């Protein structure tokens, strides 16, 4: 799967269905499920790399109310992951903008549902539960060590 193919799947998210995450994802899930299983895996890997790239202290400081302040202040790693999901879910243009200018990070939004897109596509394709995907990097908060270096 190419980067362009990845973004074309993301562009299928149906924001007219906002409020029903499954409905938002459905067109993308269906399109991805028509691809070979290796491409579904590749989609998940690209998603992981995009989320990993946004996993930086400066990005975390720009997410809004729950922004990272310091090691001494509570910070939700999950909220930051779900905020990063919003950036990717809103397409290549926003992603590239926020990646290069963390101050443009959307404030106080989250879209955890995108994390299930490849899994749902795999299950739709195979009628089997997805055993999980091996990715080149982790998207979990704080996994981008260089991004959190002081």
Task: Please specify the SSE layout and strand pairing.
Blueprint: H1 3-10, H2 21-33, H3 37-53, H4 57-60, H5 77-89, H6 92-100, H7 117-126, H8 145-148
Helix pairs in contact: 2-7, 3-7
Count, helices: 8
First-to-last CA distance: 35 Å
The averaged pLDDT comes out at 97
Shape: globular
Extract low-pLDDT stretches.
none
Strand fraction equals: under 5%
**Number of E-state strands:** 0
Would you mind describing this structure in some detail?
The chain is mainly alpha-helical and 150 residues long. It has one domain (3-143). 52% of the residues lie in helices and 0% in strands. It has helices at residues 3-10, 21-33, 37-53, 57-60, 77-89, 92-100, 117-126, 145-148. Helix 2 (21-33) packs across helix 7 and helix 3 (37-53) packs antiparallel against helix 7. It is globular and about 45 Å long. It starts with a helix and ends with a helix. The model has no long low-confidence stretch (mean pLDDT 97).
Please outline what is shown here.
The chain is mainly alpha-helical. The protein is built from eight helices and no strands.
For this entry, give a set of tags.
single chain, 150 residues, mainly alpha, globular
